[in-house]
């Protein structure tokens, strides 16, 4: 997260989007925790996982044009790709933990990268 405080608005915005994603996951986990029905909790967690996967795809598709347009450097792109993957993996792990805690099911049904 070397570029999180960069003067480059494009890279700062990309890192802010990662922050927003993490905040969304934490909010969804909090919502699921308050649910009485485990099925409703699973729906909330599954929806959050879908948003993470959409974010991963969106970020991957965004980086190449930013490099081509010279909006970010190759070093920034590499850092963003690594940090994005790290953040997405952390979100997936949090959701897997939440599923295990709130629904009484193991994390085997919510493995990384699976819906």
| Level-2 CATH architecture | Orthogonal Bundle
pLDDT under 50 segments (min length 5)?
Answer: 105-115
CA-based gyration radius: 16 Å
Percent helix: over 70%
Whole-number mean pLDDT: 87
- What count of structural domains? 1
Largest sheet: number of strands, sense, barrel closure? none
Provide the succession of SSEs: HHH
Shape: elongated
Structural class: mainly alpha
Number of strands: 0
CATH topology: Topoisomerase I, Chain A, domain 4
Query: Strand-residue fraction?
Result: under 5%
Give a topology summary.
Blueprint lengths: L8 H26 L3 H31 L5 H30 L12
Helix pairs in contact: 1-2, 1-3, 2-3
Can you walk me through this structure?
- The chain is built from three helices and no strands.
- The model is unreliable at 105-115 (pLDDT under 50).
- The chain has helices at 9-34, 38-68, 74-103.
- It has a single domain (9-109), classed as Topoisomerase I, Chain A, domain 4, CATH 1.10.132.
- By secondary structure, the protein is mostly helical.
